[in-house]
Design a protein that fits this description.
By secondary structure, the protein is α/β, with parallel strands linked by helices. The chain has helices at residues 28-32, 38-53, 67-77, 99-107, 124-132, and strands at residues 9-14, 60-63, 88-90, 115-120, 148-153, 173-179. The chain has 5 helices and 6 strands, in the order βααβαβαβαββ.
Amino acid sequence: MPIVPTPRRLILLRHAEATSSDLGSFSPDSDMARPLTQDGERAAMRCGIWLRENHLIPDTVLCSPAVRTQQTLAGIQGVLCPPPLENVFLCPEIYEAEPGALAMMLWQISDQARTVLLIGHNPGISEFARWLDSRSAQLDQGFAPGSLAVFKMSGSDLVPDQTSWANCSSTSLILHTFTRP
């Protein structure tokens, strides 16, 4: 019996809840330094547990270098088995990225990657999810901190040699699950 490959999957994650900016400090540096709240740390662990329980262990991670996104990733890594995740890339271009920029990042991913986790910020993450699936009623509820959207690449489990991240688009990635664990 032939082995059916895992379909390519993209997981979009908005970082968990972070502290507010210091009053009067609106610089990009101060925003990048905002850590998670205690609730945010627990939410990051819940995201990791949800990913583990749903067999969605990423083999490639694209993460904004902001403190809150890195702490979200650390919370996820702390509950995944076996840690640590390999192929983790801190990508400054995720911060304040528009959908087209996030798509271009996906197009650069190795064809060896089957499950990609992209950890970023709003409005970029929610706009990218909407760009990928503009008709999903699930996305109407908003992309709160700690929300996950799992997209599957159509046909990637049937003809894996003919599908690649370089060819992914809003017509090839289909929303499978939207949740806030």
